[in-house]
Design goal:
Blueprint: H1 9-34, H2 48-57, E1 63-65, H3 71-76, H4 81-89, H5 122-135, E2 142-147, H6 154-165, E3 170-176, E4 179-180, E5 183-184, H7 185-188, E6 204-208, H8 212-229, E7 233-238, H9 267-277, H10 283-304, H11 314-317, H12 325-334
Parallel strand pairs: 1-2, 2-3, 3-7, 6-7
Antiparallel strand pairs: 4-5
Helix pairs in contact: 1-2, 1-9, 1-10, 2-8, 4-10, 5-6
This protein binds thiamine diphosphate (TPP).
Thiamine diphosphate (TPP) binds near residues 69, 117, 148, 149 and 245.
């Protein structure tokens, strides 16, 4: 049987598996930060459904210019959890030797490019990436994700303007989780988000990103539009940030939780209930998936924690091929 005339049961089950795994990993990294094992984290709880939906529609040649809350999408596209853990632990196997903030990943071999911290600064890069693809006559489109707060930055508007003028094949996705840190969406922008592209000639769509089928339906339309029209679209997935903005934030100071993790409103619980009602998931299989996620992450975390931190020497050797006398002097003092 095909759902939305496209996806079979196994694809939906795989998406559920990734969503559960991602939430389990996200919660574990939050705890690891509280234990002092990890320095910082921007949790992605509540963002899983649109991200698995995007993952289901991406093709091999597509590239993603994502932001710091896209953990599920990285897992969906096959970034090994070991590499993610190395990154969180900032150990010697981390590709940046722990010098990027956690959640500021770089996995080029999986079609992900370096995450930028300044809000929405990566959106003009997405236009550049699409432009480069066209110049090199490469297949595929660009997916560029950011939060609702990102739509109130100058970079968002510059990116949309150039994407439209140059007809760039980009799906701009706004993961509207209701807040930019403590600021509710309604207090940082007045225009409906999906309409913000209209002034640039970019169509927009908006849907309930907490529901797997409305997310899949919405993204199907968006990806189809960009692939066939070879021009940009703006997508708003309406979701809710279940956790704090980051491990440095305490949302109790400014809001009451509207969606509680594990409640019947939690989008992963809604996904689970939907799969059960369709006869795709049983209680037994669900328990198996949830246990597998916990056990697998715990085992891998234990393994990766044995990896030593980067050698001190790399502070200099990663930056200078031939250290100057100043670095030589510093090396003698520090190392
Ligand atoms: C240019 C800039 N201003 C302020 C910040 C501090 N800051 C980090 S994330 C953030 C909120 C972003 O909100 P949103 O785009 O809605 O994404 P969310 O974090 O909610 O997923 C802010 C203000 C920053 N990183 N960059």
């Amino acid at each position: 049987m095909k759902f939305l005339n496209r996806f079979d049961e196994n694809e939906l089950l795989n998406a559920y598996r990734v969503a559960v795994y991602s939430r389990t990993l996200d919660n574990r990294i939050m705890n690891a930060q509280r234990q002092g094992i990890v320095g910082f984290h921007t949790p992605s709880a509540g963002h899983e459904i649109p991200q698995v939906a995007m993952g289901m529609l991406l093709e091999k040649d597509d590239i993603v210019i994502n932001y710091y809350r896209d953990l599920t999408l990285l897992l969906f596209r096959g970034v090994p959890v070991e590499s993610l853990l190395d990154h969180f632990l900032a150990n010697s196997k981390d590709s940046s030797h722990g010098r990027n903030m956690p959640d500021h990943y770089n996995y080029r071999e999986y079609g992900f490019y370096s995450v930028q911290s300044p809000v929405a600064m990566h959106l003009p890069f997405a236009v550049g990436a699409a432009y480069a693809k066209i110049m090199k006559k490469e297949e595929g489109i660009v997916l560029a994700n950011t939060g609702d707060g990102g739509t109130s930055t100058g970079d968002f508007h510059a990116a949309l303007n150039f994407a439209s003028v140059w007809k760039m094949p980009i799906v701009f996705v706004i993961e509207n989780n209701g807040y930019a840190i403590s600021l509710p969406t309604s207090e940082q922008t007045k225009a409906p988000i999906e309409k913000k592209g209209e002034a640039y000639g970019i169509p927009g769509i908006s849907f309930d990103g907490n529901d797997i089928f409305s997310a899949l339906e919405g993204f199907m339309k968006a990806f189809e539009y960009v692939r066939t029209q070879k021009s940009p679209i703006l997508v708003e997935a309406r979701i809710y940030r279940i956790g704090p903005h980051s491990t440095s934030d305490d949302p109790k100071k400014y809001r009451k939780d509207e969606i509680v993790q594990g409640s019947s409103d939690d989008p992963i619980v809604r996904f689970r209930d939907k799969l059960k009602s369709l006869g795709i998931l049983t209680d037994e299989l669900d328990n198996e998936i949830r246990k597998w996620a916990v056990d697998d992450i715990e085992k891998k975390l234990e393994d990766r924690m044995k990896i030593p931190p980067p050698p001190k020497e790399t502070i200099i050797s990663d930056v200078y091929e031939n250290p100057t006398w100043i670095q030589e002097e510093e090396r003698r003092e520090w190392l």
